[in-house]
Amino acid sequence: MPGRSLRLDSVTVEGASSAGSGNARPGATSGPAPLALYETSVRHSRSGPIRHDVYARSYWWLVDVDQLQVDGRGVAGLPGFPAWTTRLASIRPADLDIGSVPSFGAALRRKVAELAARENSQWDRTLDVEGPALLACTGRVAGAGFDPLSVVWLHSASGEPVAVLAVVRNTYGGLHHYLLRPDARGRAEVPKSFMVSPFHDGEGRYVLDVPPPGDELYVGIRLEREGEPDFLASVSGTKQAATPKTLIGLALRRPIEPVAVSAKIRAHGVYLWARGLRVHPVPESDTSAGREAPGVPPAPRGPVTAMFALGTRWILAAVAGGMSVRIEYPDGRVLGAGRHSPNAPRMIIHRPSEFHSRVGRYASIGLGESYMAGEWTSPDMPALLAEFADRQATLVPRPLRMLRGLYIPRPPQATGGDKANARRNISSHYDLSNAFFALFLDETMTYSSALFPAVPRRRGRLGEDGGPTSHEVGTPTFAELAPAQEAKIDALLDAAGVRAGTRLLEIGTGWGELCLRAARRGAQVVSVTLSEAQRELAQRRADDAGLGENVAVQLCDYRDVEGEFDAVISVEMIEAVGLEYLGEYFAAIDRVLAPGGKAALQAILMDDERVRTTRNNYTWMHKYIFPGGRIPSIEAIEGALNQTRLRLGARTHFGIHYAETLRLWEDRFTARAGEVRALGFDDTFVRMWRFYLQYCEAGFRSGYLDVAQLVVERDR
């Protein structure tokens, strides 16, 4: 029975979907080849301009990839060996960059299909690789691995050798596949298209010797330039008995073997550099950093980063075990208590090394930047991040939390809430362009939480002081957003007692919808903002509506407002003030509010313990979205009010409404992403805003964040 075919572009590879079960593959003429172990010698020899040789002792495995069974961690132990030997020797599909599995063999053949399609002119229309695929590599020891070269001998269903896949890795985290067609001697030539050593430029050709392995194993790579050999790397070895006893003996004689080989290669490079050998820049495409998105800093590197990255792996694996999520790695490994549930929120990690390095080194900044760089994605982002928000207190062990100040950066002084910085902070977000915000906001151009008549309870708080006041209904639609925004504004106007003749001050204009609705009640409105774009559009809307005589929009800091007002309203502006400036904010309201007047605020809130714990943190949100922003707690607000004649009155919490508002914004933003790009914003910006909107939705949906309307009254 012939194996099924996988068609990619114009090349078809037979057997690309065959499963690795340890039995003979469909269509194959013989069973799997036995496991073989080779004790090897590794040699790197440079002939000029500085001659230098490196020798190392090692051991290689030869295994039929269809015998490799990959577990949930993405690790394949040696076939026929006890499970405990995985700590001494294991193989991972991720180390070959062949994509996700369930079947190691199927994943490898898919990669071969892609390579053959990419190099269509060099291959027949149909490449039969249905037969044995024999992998030679060092594997991993104690989880550590650095394999400069791995080789796969590919055979047809009839057992004939048809191709060789050479997987070359450099010390910069880069990896390249060469798909070869050796001659009868096992020799193949290929143009150099990947930089392994910084002491060689991109010129030259590789001559590879990859004869089929038997009792002896030999793999050689010779770099030739202008017809002369320049560099030779080779691995040669003699077959040993592939038994646990032999493995233990080798592990004792050559412990941490992959690390030792890597160290010798790096020491070789240091020696050549010290001798003055010219160093050529390595193209970004040949490093892990070459995969970064424009506008995102490269993934951090170095020994400290490696330590944090390793810690992140452990913490993520430990915490995920108690979370109803699926954390999926490219090698097929799946973490999380929800790994067996098709409906569990999914985190798909595409580039684990960069992901763990960023998150380990830069915490929440790294998580967001990793998403911006495309290193991980999720089709269920709000649900996924809500799970993480629920476990935020235990994501980092207590001993490491005590070291928070050592690895979480402090806010730059330039993002503080003083007058010199406040306008720049506001402008960096709100002056992106009015056309941009119009793409995902409703026709009221309101950029704050709506107040729906009723929304699904889910998680979060509703009603006065967190008590439920609405019944469960269907999910709101975008058509319901504008009426819900108008209802929110009317609730604030009512709470502040705004009516005909009211002198109203609005701190934080937005795009003017509250000005319009207050003016239609007959109020005289002064609205202040630090955004030139918002000021221009808000005043124009008032003038176009015939309400210009009732509305004055000013470019003014709240601390500089003069006059006396019967009411003050401020919608989600307090978060931009900064915790250390809450006293100034309420002092300004106290100064301008007439005796007996009321202020109505809509504020995003956090629990006081979280506010105090994170008050000096510099996060992804600060770096990319709201520089200078700080979310207060009710306790922080009451503490600031105690320094004034103002007192906190009624308050209404409706955090789940904000989750629904953000969901509607993100849905519309994603649907109109093409129009966002047409305004001049790139793909990294689009990913950044999607992460921001969904990150915030998760915060409100989990209850980590809340939003409330607060009434503040002044003593007579």
Question: Summarize this, please?
Answer:
This is Cyclopropane-fatty-acyl-phospholipid synthase. Residues 1-32 are annotated as: Disordered. By secondary structure, the protein is α+β, with helices and mostly antiparallel strands.
Tell me the layout of helices and strands:
Layout: E1 5-8, E2 11-14, E3 36-46, E4 52-64, H1 104-118, E5 126-128, E6 133-137, E7 149-155, E8 161-169, E9 175-180, E10 187-191, E11 205-209, E12 216-225, E13 228-240, H2 244-253, H3 257-274, H4 303-320, E14 326-328, E15 334-335, E16 346-349, H5 352-372, E17 376-377, H6 381-390, H7 392-395, H8 398-401, H9 404-407, H10 419-430, H11 434-438, E18 462-464, H12 481-495, E19 503-507, H13 513-520, E20 524-529, H14 532-544, E21 551-555, E22 565-571, H15 582-592, E23 593-605, H16 608-614, H17 620-624, H18 634-641, E24 646-654, H19 655-671, H20 673-678, H21 683-702, E25 706-714
Parallel strand pairs: 2-5, 14-16, 19-20, 19-22, 20-21, 22-23
Antiparallel strand pairs: 1-2, 3-4, 3-13, 4-6, 6-7, 7-8, 8-9, 10-11, 11-12, 12-13, 14-15, 16-17, 18-24, 23-25, 24-25
Helix pairs in contact: 4-5, 5-21, 6-21, 12-13, 15-18, 19-21
